[in-house]
Target: Cis-2,3-dihydrobiphenyl-2,3-diol dehydrogenase
Amino acid sequence: MGVLDGQTVVLTGAGSGIGRAVVRRYAAEGARVVAVDITERVGELSAELGEAVIPVVADVATWEGNVRAVRTALDAWGRLDVFVGNAGITDSARPLEDIPGDALPAAFGELFGVNVLAPMLGVRAALDALIASHGAVILTGSFAGSSAAGGGVLYTASKHAVEGLVRQLAYELAPDVRVNGVAPGVAPTRLRGTSALGQGMADSVLDGTKEALPLQEVPDTDAYGGVFTLLASRTDAGVMTGTMITADSGLAIRGIARPGGRVGR
Model:
């Protein structure tokens, strides 16, 4: 029996990276997951994990995409216990000075549409079902949600907004729904860029990343599964709401001279 035995989850951004790893962990812990992504790649999860996963190809920056994901969970399993808003795109660390002024509105709308509006839409679509189950919301933030230089001006602002969204929704939905978040540092995956800025897919781990981390290792995407499982667990996280769990390999305590006190000894 797993920690999430019998729970039903909608998880966005499930096609790759941390989202894909969390779907696998949730299934191993006994959960049933509607895995949502804008790419067809999400279909591979049902082939791998069987009836525990139903893939849905949808644009989570639209109301219709989120409604379809929630309806899929309710039609298949009759309930929804957890909504995980994990979908996100990057600006490839583009500073404001390097964004043409006439491109800024479209770039802002595109990036904030996925990183901020999409989790709002997802929670709203799932709200009645989550209240009925006294369920949980988990949003994926970032080290950039509390620090500068974790991305460019658009990405950093969007992840700061996610932290505010976690706190406000935790307040609004208490006592019926717990709302928490996870703020990862780095993970070996490829992120979709902002097309309004002419960006495609980009590697999230750059040369020198490992050496910059206090823990001196780039974690695999599977390393984050336990934190997401904790927050979904009614038993282990039943007293937690409005919390962002930092899982950043120590970036927040990185020193000026060197990343950690014993690094290089």
The chain has a mean pLDDT of 95. Strands lie at 8-12, 32-37, 53-57, 82-85, 136-140, 178-184, 190-192, 201-203, 244-247. Helices lie at 17-28, 43-49, 63-77, 104-133, 153-173, 209-212, 225-232. The two ends are 44 Å apart (CA to CA).
